[in-house]
Every structure is written in structure tokens, then in C-alpha cells.
Design a protein that fits this description.
The structure is a single chain. Strand 20 and strand 21 form a beta hairpin. By secondary structure, the protein is mainly beta. The strands form 12 sheets. Strands 25, 26, 28, 30, 35 and 39 form a 6-stranded antiparallel beta sheet that branches. Strands 10-11-12-13-17 form a 5-stranded mixed beta sheet. A 5-stranded antiparallel beta sheet has the order 27-29-36-31-32, with no helix packed on it. It is built from 7 helices and 47 strands.
Length: 716
């Protein structure tokens, strides 16, 4: 009866914009031991169908528009039952690009609306007397109570988890809020007794909630019901559409397929033979008085067939039908992590994982689980972030709005405000690339050296990319990688097991980066990191020539969505762990910051800042020298490029009493000169796993004939 808009996250896309429908087929599934599939009609090639409902005579109504994004107009279509749905007529047309659409027939009128404009309209069954009833931002669903009153589900505050249920006055357009939620959107439905059901989308709430007529009436005179104060009626993995059928119950279409929900006790019975995970998602369902119909998406471009269907209970459906929408194979919908285009109504179950998952693979688990090396956005090891880019070459299936390479500069999203942070990315398109640059080289140290952040909004809808590094910006080496995902992953309802993937960026959700270690490639340092999108259809291979799968096909913000690249360093505690035994670490006289266990005159904090071995005598002259020339001096040193907790100060003096700071480097970052512009200069280069730094200054001040320099280390 109602279509809906699904969005996510990293990550989300709406149904009506992600493909060109080349065929719509009505498939009848009979409640007999053996069921067949019969094509009833083929819809206009290249057009999308949204929303579906029937009148008392069994005539079918739905919204239709050109499958190309943004194309107008949209038409309300009627197909007559007496013609076997072959007779097609356009009974209303308006300018709009609907998504999140619903169609509801009530008292001889067809009510329809959608979230792009928030319009709620109705016409007579023949298309006459068009009426605009209201404009409700991000309208998601509309139903009528047994008494004939209209109720809506809408997210009036747009891109937030604040969906609301309200009673709609069709004459004035006023809405009286009766239920407030922390969800993005969700379907609603009444049963014959006047109980109102709300299904959480899975992006805030996932359960089904029941509100009695008395609760609804009380909310009309008091404060709206707060969803957290209501006990869930049924536990579900997310909900997309509801349809009440008298004496049977409420059919719910969700990420796990089609189930029959008993309105009395909340018992859920799967409908055998109905499309399940990977097939049959996101379709509205409607009852014509005898049969249940539903819109289903088939990415295999074929019609689903059903084998023997047993009777699950006395409430089993006697006649079941599904409308199969097949998508044009050249269109590639991709989850769009932009608010303005993807969460307009609110996220639902677009990217919910299938209820059955493959056995765990051999690689590390999702972020937050034991053994996961995922790098948090606020990891204390992070030295700095990529501060530039070169050679951004987006591939197909990404629109101009998402070609924003500057969004990959700076810190990664925290995951605390995913609706906003998932927008702050650059999309690569299918097979696209971007190369990130840094304020200082990435230096190989103990453990991982940098992390790549994507904007996936959960641990299962993951998009992958190859990661390559270079020390000169020209010659790149690719990190070894592995993908054990055995089968193609559909965009709708598909999921990837993190433990089946290794060595690919995008393995972790928003706020967590995938780490990489230069040692794997035998490199001491790198100046550039290149990210190469993997389309996910199996055409790209891992290091063992196995196909790589991720949700596919995609569009709009197609390809890997790069959030940030962070460079990892070594904290002082981490440095202690690499050089001292547990017993030594418990003894500050050996491992403390001012201890000098090798008696070379360099305390541990200096050894740490210079990337020196605290147990091996090394004269200070090995790391720092002062050179005097006519009119100038220079201070040269080798220092660590990964010492996160060290601030290196370069001071000069002419008398060993008064010192002036002329340069400073913080946490492995670049050395910065102080003083008059041009009076002090800094040159840096990479030398093995260390940074070679030379600070040069003038000696004309006070006509001094000598100059002293010192290296000083402090903590941030």
C-alpha cells in the first residue's frame, strides 16, 4: 500500500533514484502445494513505479516517473483489474521527483504523496477533483484509522532521529503530534480494533510498537507519547512496510523478508516463498481483498520463482503476489552519505544486513571487538592528518556534488553525529583514485604507520579500496590484500563480513580507520598515499586473484567515500614498551623520561625524540652538530618522525646564559622557524627512518663571534 524511502549511511540512497526499471512483472504465488509465476504486465521501459494500492474493484494505482534522477513529471497510474492490469491510464500528473512515496485508496479517493516535496494530494478514482491537502516535510507514510481519520509518519526535523507520528487534518493540513521517536522514519498501520502500529527503521529503533486507541486519545489532549516509555510489541530487525489484512494480521516487509505479525501476541511467522534477503527489499505491499501484492527489487534481472509452500498456520496467506522490478544493469546505486540527498525522509533498512551471515573468516573483527586493530579517530598515536591531495580522478557513477576532494583533508569524523559526518567525504566513483599528501613524510615505526578512514555507518555495509604508497609521488606500491567474500553482495540488503577482508581500506565503520604498516612493503617512509576504488562487482581481484565483492551496483556517490588519512606515531609509553622489559618499565630509574640507562648523556626523553636506542651508548654528536660559517650558523640533527609525545625546541645563545628559541617541531610534525621572517630557515628531508633537519640562522645580531645551540625536549 505504501512505498518508502530508505537511506543510510557512511553511507545511503533512496529507492526511486537508483536505477532505470526495464520491466515490472506481476508474479502470482498460489497457496497450493506447488506455486507458479505468471507475468501479468510489463511496465513502461525505463520508468520507476512507487507506491501501490487497490480500490474495492481490485484496480491498481501507483506513482510512476522516468528512472533518471530528477526527471519530471510524475504520474499517478491506474490499471484496471478487468483487463488483467493491461489497461493503463494516467489519471494525474504533477511536477516532482518522488521518493519515499505512498499511495492509499480511501472512500473513493486515491491519496498519494512523497518526501521530496512533502506533498499530500488526492484525486477521485477517475483522476478528477485534484486536491492538495498538506505539505509535511519528509512525509514517510499515511494511513487511515478504522474511523476514517488520517495519520502520518514524518520526520519534520529532516536529517535527524526525530520521526513523529501525528493525526492529519485533511481539510486544514494541520498535524497533531501523538508520538515522538528517536528514529529516522518508519511505516505505520492500523488494525481493525484501532491500534496503531509503528515499525522502527533500524536507524534508531528496530522494533514494532503498538499504541492503543486510549493512548492515542490521551496524547491528543496531553503531551506526545515518548517511544522510550513504551514496551516494544515485537522484536524485529528493521521495518519497511506494513499492511493489515483482516483476520490474518499485519504483514511486514523488512530486511529479513516478509513476515506475518499477529496483532494480539506479536508472534511473527515468516511467509514461505516470499522474497528474502538480497531479493524483495524495499517494496510496498498492498491487499486487493483477496491477494497480497508487493514491489520487490531483483538485481539478477530475472523473475523470482517459488517452489512448494507449506501451510505455516491457520492464518496463512491463500494467495500471494509480488511485483518484480528489474533494474537497468548500467545504473549503479551506491549508498549516499549526503544528508541532502539520502536521508531526506530518514533512514530505514536500506543497508541492514541479511539475517543469515556467513561463518567468520580468519581476519580481524569489526571495530570495538577484541582483536580488532581499527584505529579510532581520537587514537593517541595520531600525529597529523593528510593536508593536501593530487590527482583526484573520479570514476563513473559519482555526481558533481560528491566530487569534493577537500573533504578528505584534515581529521576524520568521530561517529558521534553520523548524519552530518557522513557527508564530509569525497566519493571516488567506480575505480576512481585520489592521492593524499602530508605535512611530513610517513615514517615506518613499530606497528602500524597510518590509517585510512571511510564513512560506513555500520559494521556490515562496507565499501573497499586498494591502498598504495609512494616515496616520490610517482612510483607506487600496493599493499597486499585479501577478500574471502564468496558471492556478489547486493546493494540492497547485502552485507560483508569484516573477518573475510584484509589489507583493504574501508574495513571499518565511520570513526574508525583501517591501519597499514610500511614494513609490509619494505619501505622506511612514504610521502604519498593513493586510494583506488574497488567497484565491488568481482571484476577487481585481491592479491591471490580472488574476486573482491562489496555492495553493488551503486550510483550518485558511487565508489569509496574517503573521509581522512591519519598518520600514526609512537607515544612515549609505546616507545618504552619497545625498548624495556616489564620489570624495567616498572623502574623509573631505568625507563623514566629523565633516566639515562646507557650513560651516553642523553636521557630517555631525548632518546625518544631522536629515535635512538636507550640501551646503546651513542654520543650526542651522532645526532646533532653545529656549523659556523661567515655570517651564519647551522644546527643539524637527526630526529624521530613518529615521537607523538615530544616537542623538540632549538634554542640559540651567544653567552650560554640567555637563550632564544628559533625553531620547534611538535609530535613528528614539521620543524617551524621562529623570529624575523627570513632570519631563520629550515630544511628537512627523510633519512632512512628518521628526519634530517637543518636550521640555519644569521650571526649578525650584536656582532657576536660565537653562537651556541641546544636541543630541548618537552611534552605536549
Amino acid at each position: 500500500m505504501r512505498d518508502r524511502q530508505f537511506a543510510a549511511q557512511r553511507h545511503r540512497r533512496w529507492t526511486s533514484l537508483y536505477g532505470v526499471v526495464i520491466a515490472i512483472t506481476l508474479v502470482l504465488v498460489l497457496g497450493r502445494p506447488v506455486c507458479g509465476a505468471t507475468t501479468v504486465f510489463t511496465n513502461t521501459a525505463g520508468f520507476l513505479m512507487e507506491g501501490v494500492d487497490f480500490d474495492a474493484a481490485g484496480n491498481l494505482y501507483y506513482l510512476e516517473r522516468d528512472g533518471a534522477a530528477g526527471t519530471v513529471p510524475t504520474r499517478l497510474i491506474k490499471r484496471t483489474a478487468s483487463s488483467g492490469f493491461a489497461d493503463r491510464s494516467e489519471i494525474f500528473e504533477y511536477v516532482g521527483s518522488p521518493f519515499g512515496a505512498f499511495v492509499t485508496v480511501q472512500n473513493g479517493r486515491v491519496y498519494f504523496g512523497e518526501s521530496s516535496s512533502g506533498s499530500i494530494r488526492s484525486v477521485m478514482l477517475n483522476g478528477s477533483d485534484p486536491t492538495l491537502h498538506a505539505a509535511v516535510p519528509n512525509i514517510y507514510d499515511l494511513v487511515f484509522s478504522p474511523a476514517g481519520d488520517a495519520f502520518i509518519s514524518a520526520n519534520s526535523e529532516s536529517f535527524s532521529g526525530k520521526n513523529q507520528l501525528g493525526a492529519l487534518n485533511l481539510l486544514t493540513g494541520d498535524v497533531r503530534i501523538i508520538v515522538s521517536t528517536n528514529d529516522f522514519s518508519g511505516p505505520i498501520e492500523f488494525d481493525a480494533d484501532g491500534n496503531l502500529y509503528y515499525g522502527g527503521s533500524g536507524f534508531g529503533e528496530s522494533e514494532v510498537f503498538q499504541f492503543t486507541p486510549s493512548q492515542i486519545a490521551a496524547a491528543a489532549t496531553g503531551s506526545p507519547i515518548i517511544l522510550s516509555s513504551v514496551t516494544p510489541f515485537a522484536s524485529t530487525p528493521g521495518n519497511s512496510h506494513f499492511e493489515f489484512v483482516s483476520a490474518k494480521g499485519i504483514f511486514r516487509h523488512a530486511s529479513g523478508g516478509l513476515t506475518l505479525l499477529d496483532p494480539v501476541i506479536g508472534l511473527q511467522t515468516p511467509v514461505p516463498g516470499a522474497p528474502g534477503p538480497g531479493l524483495g527489499f524495499f517494496g510496498p505491499i498492498a491487499h486487493d481483498g483477496t491477494s497480497l501484492f508487493g514491489v520487490s527489487t531483483d538485481f539478477a534481472n530475472n523473475i523470482s520463482t517459488f517452489s512448494q509452500i507449506p501451510e505455516p498456520s491457520a492464518a496463512f496467506l491463500s494467495l500471494l503476489g509480488f511485483l518484480i522490478m528489474t533494474l537497468h544493469p548500467t545504473r549503479r546505486p551506491r549508498h549516499d552519505h549526503r544528508r541532502a540527498t539520502t536521508i531526506a525522509l530518514g533512514a530505514a533498512t536500506l543497508l541492514q544486513a541479511a539475517t543469515e551471515t556467513a561463518p567468520a573468516g580468519p581476519y580481524p573483527p569489526p571495530a570495538g571487538q577484541a582483536g580488532s586493530p581499527a584505529v579510532a579517530h581520537d587514537d593517541p598515536r595520531i600525529l597529523f592528518w593528510a593536508d593536501g591531495f593530487v590527482n583526484y580522478q573520479p570514476g563513473p557513477n559519482v555526481i558533481l556534488e560528491f566530487m569534493t576532494p577537500g573533504e578528505a583533508i584534515g581529521a576524520a569524523g568521530t561517529g558521534s553525529d553520523p548524519e552530518q559526518e557522513i557527508l564530509e567525504v569525497v566519493s571516488l566513483g567506480d575505480g576512481g583514485t585520489i592521492t593524499m599528501t602530508f605535512p611530513n613524510p610517513i615514517v615506518d615505526g613499530p606497528g602500524d604507520d597510518f590509517a585510512v578512514f571511510e564513512n560506513a555507518f555500520n559494521d556490515m555495509f562496507l565499501e573497499f579500496a586498494y591502498v598504495e604508497v609512494s616515496s616520490n609521488g610517482v612510483d607506487f606500491l600496493r599493499f597486499p590484500n585479501a577478500s574471502l567474500t564468496p558471492n556478489p553482495v547486493p546493494f540492497l540488503g547485502g552485507s560483508v563480513d569484516t573477518t573475510d577482508v584484509d589489507g583493504l581500506a574501508g574495513k571499518y565503520r565511520l570513526g574508525f580507520g583501517t591501519p597499514f604498516d610500511l614494513q609490509e612493503l619494505g619501505l622506511a617512509s612514504a610521502s604519498h598515499v593513493r586510494i583506488v576504488d574497488i567497484p565491488g562487482d568481482g571484476s577487481s581481484l585481491d592479491s591471490e586473484n580472488r574476486p573482491i565483492y562489496d555492495p553493488d551496483p551503486t550510483d550518485f556517490s558511487g565508489g569509496f567515500d574517503l573521509d581522512a588519512v591519519g598518520v600514526l606515531g609512537l607515544t612515549f609509553g609505546g616507545w618504552q614498551s619497545t625498548h624495556f622489559s616489564p620489570g624495567e618499565r616498572s623502574n623509573p630509574a631505568v625507563s623514566g623520561s629523565k633516566a639515562d640507562p646507557d650513560h651516553d648523556g642523553l636521557p630517555n626523553d631525548i632518546e625518544y625524540a631522536l629515535d635512538s636506542d636507550p640501551k646503546h651508548f651513542t654520543p650526542p654528536s651522532h645526532f646533532a652538530t653545529v656549523n659556523l660559517t661567515a655570517g651564519s650558523f647551522s644546527f643539524s640533527m637527526l630526529r624521530s618522525g613518529i615521537a607523538k609525545d615530544a616537542i623538540i625546541h632549538i634554542d640559540v645563545s651567544s653567552n650560554l646564559t640567555f637563550w632564544e628559541e628559533i625553531a620547534r617541531a611538535t609530535g613528528g610534525g614539521p620543524m617551524t622557524a621562529f623570529g624575523n621572517p627570513g632570519a631563520i630557515s629550515v630544511e628537512e628531508s627523510i633519512s632512512g627512518s628518521r628526519l634530517s633537519t637543518t636550521v640555519t640562522g644569521s650571526m649578525t645580531l650584536d656582532d657576536v663571534t660565537s653562537r651556541f645551540a641546544r636541543l630541548r625536549v618537552s611534552s605536549p
